[in-house]
């Protein structure tokens, strides 16, 4: 899980899915929050902390896979659209100057509109699932926070009665 007991990944975006780098704020191990070194696994993790960590990881992987596939489809269909429009004009992939031939903004707007219309349902389902997943993550974040407060209060209560 990264160095220093931190969960999540940091770094450059994946070139195929293009999500921004992910920075999880929940340490992989509760002992790491208390400064204990060498905390790699999650032995002291509560069931809620484990569920939160797993939900975050699963959501990140799901999101990465969706956008990698979606961006690949987009690039492929865009190239096919440009190629077919240039061919219809009797043009090749390169202009006389040797530069790559392109279409104007109005022509590309046709592609973008068509692509979005064709993928509307897919994006609608993605958004629905994205909100469901983030609601679940937010729920478990609240649950973990409440459990931590409750555990601190119980610990204080034990100390005052000892």
TrEMBL record:
<keyword id="KW-0999">Mitochondrion inner membrane</keyword>
<feature type="compositionally biased region" description="Low complexity">
    <location>
        <begin position="15"/>
        <end position="30"/>
    </location>
</feature>
<keyword id="KW-0472">Membrane</keyword>
<keyword id="KW-0809">Transit peptide</keyword>
<dbReference type="Pfam" id="PF10231">
    <property type="entry name" value="COA8"/>
</dbReference>
<dbReference type="GO" id="GO:0005743">
    <property type="term" value="C:mitochondrial inner membrane"/>
</dbReference>
<protein>
    <recommendedName>
        <fullName>Cytochrome c oxidase assembly factor 8</fullName>
    </recommendedName>
</protein>
<keyword id="KW-0496">Mitochondrion</keyword>
<dbReference type="InterPro" id="IPR018796">
    <property type="entry name" value="COA8"/>
</dbReference>
<dbReference type="GO" id="GO:0097193">
    <property type="term" value="P:intrinsic apoptotic signaling pathway"/>
</dbReference>
<comment type="similarity">
    <text>Belongs to the COA8 family.</text>
</comment>
<feature type="region of interest" description="Disordered">
    <location>
        <begin position="1"/>
        <end position="55"/>
    </location>
</feature>
